[in-house]
UniProtKB/TrEMBL annotation:
One Pfam family matching this protein: Aldedh
Top-level taxon in the UniProt lineage: Bacteria
Name of the protein: Betaine-aldehyde dehydrogenase
Sequence ranges assigned to domain Aldehyde dehydrogenase in this UniProt record: 29-491
Active-site residues (renumbered): E264
Protein species of origin: Aquisalibacillus elongatus
Protein keywords: Oxidoreductase
Amino acid sequence: MELTKEAIQEVGEMKRKHYAMVINGERVESASGDTLETFDPAKGETIATVAKANEEDTEKAVQAARQAFDHGKWRKYPVGKRARVMNQIASIMRSRFKELVEMEVLNSGKSVGAATVQINQAIEDFEFYAGAIVGHRGVVNNMPYGFFNYTHKEPVGVCAQIIPWNYPMMMAAWKIAPAIAAGCSVVIKPASLTPITAILINEICHEAGVPEGVVNTVPGSGAVVGDYLVQHEDINKVAFTGSTPTGKDIMEKASQTLKRITLELGGKSPNIVFEDADMEAAVPGSLFGIFFNTGQSCEARSRMFVHESIYDEFMEQFVEKTKQLKSGDPFDKGTHLGSIISQEQLNVIDSYVQSAIADGATVLTGGKQMYPEGFENGYWYEPTVITDVTPDMKAVREEIFGPVVVVEKFSDEKDVIKRANDTKYGLGSSIWTTNQGRATRVAHQIQAGIVMVNSPFSAFPGTPFGGYKESGFGRELSVETLDLYMEDKSVLSYYGPKPLNPFGV
């Protein structure tokens, strides 16, 4: 079925029960006929089936992207024309905003408030890169007399982009927007749990005027589709957001063909509350830092360090506000926490909490599965605060990826910096203090790609997002991202009055 404007508008007015993959500008069923069931995790109910790609389907998508890049017109468009198409993508997304939010909530179980913010940012990503690419250019370098050198930025080629389940549409936008702005073609592999909005954003790209084959979406398993893309000789770059173990596997496999790689991986981010923190800002900000998106965020500030002189006062307020957080109907604007993505992930979260208890930790609130009225068959976990922890506990060292925070006291600045950095991860971090000198001093010593000072927010279009150490490498969401999708070609010419004869023969 061709993705005409009329067809997209027609299906946009109703929820589909089945979603095909998108290859070369067409809706395509799996060559095997296989499908995935996709769920509403808030209720534990099936909402639709999705075509499940295999290696044959993935090969078709790669070849469509390769053909579009090597022989198509997108990479040859003037940047101003690409920018106009990208702004049109954003415009269509705004016109379908309610539908996109609804589908994100249904497929991920997140609260409508969280989904609204994330779809807004997805739209802004396309607008940001539409502007950024227009001014992104090479340079003219100083050379000896008679020589002229300039650099020319060219798209890197065909890119495989592997999307996680925690921010399905926003992460798709983070990857698609800079890649197509740069002139690349892409093959998207959305998470098997949350493929719907990635398919929708692909369809919108075509409606807006992105040529056939430039954006392709193939839902399927990581073991089949992901591995095939990572090892394919016609894929020039891989961008992956997900777990650190999977990132290591991708890096190893991609090394066989020396692909460019961007990895945005796990985290165990510290949240440091100094004795001079503004309590009215630090308590709700710290609450948001761990419980936003139900704690299912790579940069969630899941290790909290509170100065001993304010520990009791801070924790009393923090626990009380945690108990006030509302879980339940994701479409209720008063809901703070949505559901956990799956029963499997809920079991993982609970296993970490139980291990902490077994190791002698104390649960101040939460610590178990919950069953909100009307959503008893969904996957829900109470927002959980754990104290009396030690650095060797699994719950302190490993990424839980749920609404669980571990809390420790600290006594001085040097001590807390050392403890904050005592992790294999280095993605996000928060600092709460009214002393600007301390804020700057500590920010420069924290081993993390993102430092939030007196603010719970980690990302806006234009701010680099990425990590140190085993949290990966490369930056997304910023102007710097464009360079990850481009080659710098150096063009050196001679214009001197006499022919060059280096050998003198």
